[in-house]
Amino acid sequence: MSPAIQNQSSSFAMAIALLRRDLLLVYRRRSDSVTVLVFFSIVVSLFPLGVGADPTMLRLIGGGVVWVAALLSAMLSLPRLFSSDFADGTLEQLVLSPQPLALTVGIKCLAHWLATGIPLALMAPLLGLQFGLDSDALWVLSLGVLMGTPILSLIGAVGTALTLGLRGGNLLVALLVLPLNIPVLILGAGAVDAAQSGLGAGAHLSLLGALLIMTLIGAPFAAASALRISLD
Amino acid sequence: MPKGTDLLQLNKLACVKGERLLFSGLSCEIPSGSLVRVTGANGAGKTSLLRMIAGLSEPAAGEIVWKSQNTRLSRSEFLQDILYLGHASAIKDELLPAENLMANCTIQGEAFSAPEVHAVLEELGMGERLDVESLSLSAGQRRRIALARVWLTHRPLWLLDEPFNALDVKSVEQLCLQISYHVGEGGICLYTTHQPVDIVSNRQLTIPLDAFCQPAKAQSDPSVLNGLIL
Which residue of B lies nearest to A96 if distances are taken between CA atoms? Predict the structure, then answer.
């Protein structure tokens, strides 16, 4: 085996091991993931109580409400991405790993998405039912959340990496990251609206996909540099 | 196993923390088989020096050369040669001791089988605690799990920051033996400690950081401080 191939395969093995470790941690701390989902359903359920039970209005705001709640729930889970690794010294070891730090960041984001993004995407249509969304809109909602949450994890990774070790870092992450997530919200909620009005959600979802690809390419490198700065 | 021809060179290293110069003009050559104790008062920059050598932080001036290559430029090769253990043990509360150790090794690109890992943990007196989550372990036991990598690794350059902290007498002896075995085989070990420990080695060096803390001289040397005020 040539050294290059050997490097690639060991890098792959490291990535798999890291993913397994992160998912094992998620499993052992599953109450954290459940908390996020409970928060998600509570926030969504507050809206009908606050704005009244008019079915037409609920159908109109349903997509947007579920999306905003999904955004906030994803924010809630962001501190777990790096802060415990930072506190117990694992992050130093990750930075000293021979595999590229951007790949490490990508793996951690993948684990974060598997633990929060997918449950949110599975739960979103159930909560959408509360607002009387039709089945097309529910599919689009779920697909949109499925495509949007990895973007939230990746952008969130940059934000949390930048604020590691700062006092009040969690609040700062929200201030940094929420504005950057506005395009995801507009496209995701817009897709549900478009599906409801019969226009088809294709355009919105395509743009969301494009955004996902762009973030996937850029964010791990940005977060890796931010981590290096935070550890210095 | 490490060969006997490696050389670590520190060239005029300087370290600045915040706006304070910790040390400057630190140069030395550390050949294979050296046991190097970094000494200095609290806050002298012992941890900073080890982190700098590992590449976790940038030197304010100077360069670190390993096997005649600047470690900045050959970073991925360098990382495959070092074992850095910091103050924090990198132990996850939710994982079992063996899971922690295996994860920490694999992250560093060193894969070991479960029997190997268990054997080392048992040798370190963790045999009875192998099936409990690390949450319930004492500080010394966590430290032992982190240090177990020292028994597994094949890497030549060890950077151990306060490795003896929280360890009991027997573990300290075991670690001293392992370190002297490592340097005897041609490895290099840089360590810091405030405890009096007795490690057997033919080539013992000391880096007294207090001697490199020369505020007045550094201030007059703009190439070192580059405008930063003491």
Answer: B79
Two tokens, residue B116: 């190997």
ipTM score for this prediction: 0.85
**β-bridge mates for residue B206, sequence order:** B37
Is A60 exposed, middle or buried, given 0-12, 13-18 or 19+ CB atoms closer than 10 A?
A: middle
Q: Which range of residues forms the domain containing residue B145?
A: 91-154
Distant-in-sequence, close-in-space partners of B183: CB < 8 Å, separation ≥ 6 = B33, B34, B35, B189, B201, B202, B203
Q: Report d(CA A78, CA A74) in Å as an integer.
A: 6
Residue B102 lies in a domain: yes
Across chain A, the runs of DSSP E, i.e. the strands, are none
Which one has a higher pLDDT value, A182 or A3? A182
Q: Report the distance separating Cα B58 and Cα A24, nearest Å.
A: 34
Q: Is residue B61 in a domain?
A: no
In chain A, what residues touch B166 (CB-CB under 8 Å)?
none
Q: How far apart are CA B176 and CA B190, in angstroms?
A: 13
A5 inside 8 A of chain B by CB: no
Q: Tokens for B213, please give them.
A: 């803390």
With an 8 Å Cβ cutoff, is A102 touching chain B?
Answer: no
| Assigned domain for B196 exists | no
Give a yes or no: residue B131 inside a domain.
yes
Q: Is the pLDDT of residue A56 over 70?
A: yes
- Classify burial at A171, counting beta carbons within 10 Å of its beta carbon; exposed 0-12, middle 13-18, buried 19 or more: exposed
Our count of domains for chain B comes to 1
Q: Which residues in chain B come in under a pLDDT of 70?
A: 1-4, 214-230
Dist CA A168 CA B191 (whole Å): 34
Place of tokens 């093995």: A13
Dihedral (CA of A188, A193, A195, A201) sign: negative
The CA-atom distances, in angstroms, between A200 and each of A138, A186, A190, A192 are: 13, 16, 10, 9
Tokens 């430029």 sit on residue: B73
Q: Is A94 on the interface with B (CB under 8 A)?
A: yes
